[in-house]
TrEMBL record:
Catalyzes the attachment of proline to tRNA(Pro) in a two-step reaction: proline is first activated by ATP to form Pro-AMP and then transferred to the acceptor end of tRNA(Pro). Its main location: cytoplasm. Its EC number is 6.1.1.15. Residues 37-285 form the Aminoacyl-transfer RNA synthetases class-II family profile domain. This is Proline--tRNA ligase. The keyword Cytoplasm applies. It comes from the Archaea.
Length: 480
């Protein structure tokens, strides 16, 4: 028996970090690559990413966004055209300095993000107002030197993501695009991954380098740490000016364009694992599950096999006709109990058990992974599996919302905040808006402003750190 076959050996509540790593590896979502900081995506992990990709692509297309492709190498001279951006990423950049044994001269950066490359090209492609808006999304890998505290899906030196880059005639249109994308992100994460998010803006300190402002969606994980789930940035003209992304208006007067950029990465998969998994392993929301239903035939001999398998095939075809992703586990030499544990580890939403006695009763046993509840369905009711999957998806989101509420607190006293932050969680706390207070809180507690929720403006309270009048009630937390 291989190490992969051994179940989770630690409790989620007792050693969250080790539990998470074991689930990633033993549920066969990913494995470590030979190079430190890199991981290999296995078929189930890739399937989940592809499911999200397909959903995003459909929504992007409805918003007039098309997909393109960008190379991974960026000349150092291009990065230097936007000094703030370059300075922000320089410590994390991998550099290519040789071609074979020959030095190449101008170093090439392995793409940490694509603004500089994309906007150099946009300046060539855009001539007049007729070329706008330009909306392109790129499904890429990005590379940033994360060598020390690596964790699969959450912090790796190379990661899968999408990055969108749009160009607009007016500031208003660009800012509307920022919010449209944030809404797409929020709805997809909640509807597909069953993870509740809080949306708002980043502080000036935490915004994306080069952006006018950054909007974000944040979630609180079961261990009390915050996770940034995605960002949508209003870039203003901060990139269009150095990269000369200009257009001629209807009167042939030249203007600098207004721009946005936005992205999510495969850390969404990490969030899903943390939010829903349990001590038995992975728990998958039905919408993204590579296998939604596994059928386990139970029999002791050839007679039982011949009696059960035809019905299994019939049920499989019936479910597949409803576009349900089904697998039949007819592996030989393995007990039903072993198979049950194996599929529970992989998080398949529904397990159907069927043996000779079930054939006689004209029914099947339906086991739900997320709460381990078992029910019986008559053969004539097999189509109700669709309803059960929908119910599981809905209930998983509701359960996650309850967990998020339990992990969210309001604190106005800094002494109390310093004590409670050790327990983890989201903390709504009044803030004066000053960088000095934000930096001191981070320095003294390790917590930063994760998000300033929309509608959280507040002038009736006192900043929890300095006691001056507050401007908003952001969410503070320690994060990944």
């Amino acid at each position: 028996m291989s190490k992969e076959d051994v179940g989770i050996t630690v409790s989620k509540n007792e050693d969250f970090s080790e539990w998470y790593t074991q689930v990633v590896l033993k549920a066969k979502l990913a494995d470590y690559a030979p190079v430190k900081g890199l991981i290999v995506l296995r078929p189930d992990g890739h399937s989940i990413w592809e499911s999200l990709k397909n959903t995003f692509d459909k929504k992007f297309a409805k918003n007039g966004i098309r997909n393109g492709f960008l190379p991974v190498l960026i000349p150092e001279s291009l990065l230097g055209k936007e000094q703030k951006h370059f300075a922000g990423f320089n410590p994390e950049v991998f550099w290519v300095t040789h071609s074979g044994t020959n030095e190449i001269g101008d170093r090439l950066a392995l793409r940490p993000t694509s603004e500089t490359l994309a906007y150099t090209l946009y300046s060539k492609w855009i001539q007049s107002w007729r070329d706008l808006p330009l909306k392109i999304n790129f499904w890429n890998t990005a590379l940033r030197a994360e060598i020390k505290a690596t964790k699969p899906f959450l912090r790796t030196s190379e990661f899968l993501w999408q990055e969108g880059h749009t160009v607009h005639i007016t500031q208003e249109e660009a800012e509307q695009e920022v919010m449209k994308i944030l809404d797409i992100y929020k709805n997809t994460v909640e509807e597909e991954l069953a993870i509740p998010v809080t949306t708002g803006k980043k502080s000036e300190k935490e915004k994306f380098v080069g952006a006018v402002y950054t909007t974000t969606m944040e979630s609180i994980m079961p261990d009390g740490k915050a996770l940034q789930m995605g960002t949508s940035h209003f870039l203003g003209q901060n990139f269009s000016k150095p990269f000369e992304v200009k257009f001629a208006d209807k009167d042939n007067v030249e203007h600098f364009a207004w721009q946005t950029s936005w992205g999510v990465s495969w850390r969404l998969i990490g969030a899903m694992i943390m939010a829903h998994g349990d001590d038995q392993g992975l728990v998958l929301p039905p919408k993204v599950a590579p296998t939604q239903v596994v059928i386990v035939p139970i029999y002791r001999n050839d007679e039982g096999r011949d009696k059960v398998l035809p019905k299994v095939k019939e049920i499989q075809e019936s479910l597949e006709a409803k576009d349900i992703r089904v697998q039949v586990d007819d592996r030989q030499g393995l007990s039903p109990g072993y198979k049950f544990n194996d599929w529970e580890m992989k998080g398949v939403p529904i397990r159907i058990e069927i043996g000779p006695k079930d054939i006689e009763k004209q029914s099947i046993v339906v086991a739900k992974r997320y709460n381990r509840e078992k029910t019986n369905l008559q053969f004539s009711e097999i189509e109700k599996v669709v309803e059960v999957l929908d119910e599981i998806q809905k209930n998983m989101l509701e359960k996650a919302r309850e967990q998020s509420k339990e992990n969210t607190k309001y604190v106005s006293d800094y002494t109390e905040f310093k004590l409670k932050i050790e327990e983890g969680g989201f903390f709504n706390a009044p803030w004066c808006g000053k960088l000095e207070c934000e930096e001191k809180i981070k320095e003294e507690t390790g917590a930063d402003i994760r998000v300033i929720p929309f509608g959280s403006e507040d002038t009736n309270s006192k900043c929890m750190y300095c006691g001056e009048q507050s401007k908003s009630i952001p969410i503070f937390a320690r994060g990944y």
